[in-house]
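Protein Record: Sequence and Backbone Structure Tokens
======================================================

Structure line: whole-number tokens from a learned vocabulary of local backbone shapes, matched to residues.

Purpose: to set a sequence beside its fold so the mapping can be learned.

___
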Amino acid sequence: MERSQTPQGNRMSTVLGRRLGGELAKHRLEAGLTQGQAAKVISASTGKVARMESGWVPMRDPDIRILCELYEVTDPAAVGGLLELARVDRERRKAKGWWNDFPGLGAMKEYVALESAATAIKTWQVAYVPGLLQCEAYIRALKPDDNFVAARLARQQRLDDEPRLHLHAVVYEAALRNLIGGADVMREQLEYLADASEKPNVSVRVLPFSAGAQVGIGCGYNVLSFTEPGAMDVVYIEIPRTQVWIEGGDEATEHDEMFERIAGEALDEPASRTFIRSLSKDL
């Protein structure tokens, strides 16, 4: 499922809202029920259920519990995951985070809001060092704009905020050899990356050229988790001039599995750190 955040009056279809609504719609269809039948048990209109399943309105916990009972979703972990996703979605809709001070973020605003709420992120990058692990000089070399640099640095605070975000990054060797800003900037970036990889909540692994051709080598992406990893994941892919969201389903699972295959071919963390520092010394 690929959509962007789109306003409708004073409502907004959010990524997490659509993820939650999609899960409930899937359970409803598996139970062989209609939106009208779902609407009846929560004393709502069919139109409201349609809006809930499309992510246009925040969902209340009592409605989720009643619908889960109707759909015969009895696994406490599954119900708990839906309730947690609803909670995070409600908080994101009301949040007045740092990103609201940076109007230039544009379409990235929804991503950074979700990044601030995520519990874990898996990122596979083929051309650049992951944004959360970029030093200031590298950021400025990518885009010499003070607002852009300040916003990117503000994002990185998420790695130190509580509860800690767990970041698992796999970076293709090409991204580490790409001299963004020249040798001096890249040397600083590589040392910064190696130092960041020593944080307890950060894992950095390098996929070397010697690993050969890999599925996924053509495009990087992020997998964001908000409850237990894999349970309610969404995938974010940034390509020139647009962003793509994959909100659960088989396609999100395939991207997660592809990330694990790529990670399985990468150097382990100590070897990756050594590799990064060796590249820095060669510049």
Notes: The domain at 6-94 is CATH 1.10.260.40 (434 Repressor (Amino-terminal Domain)). The chain is about 50% helix and 15% strand. The mean pLDDT is 88.
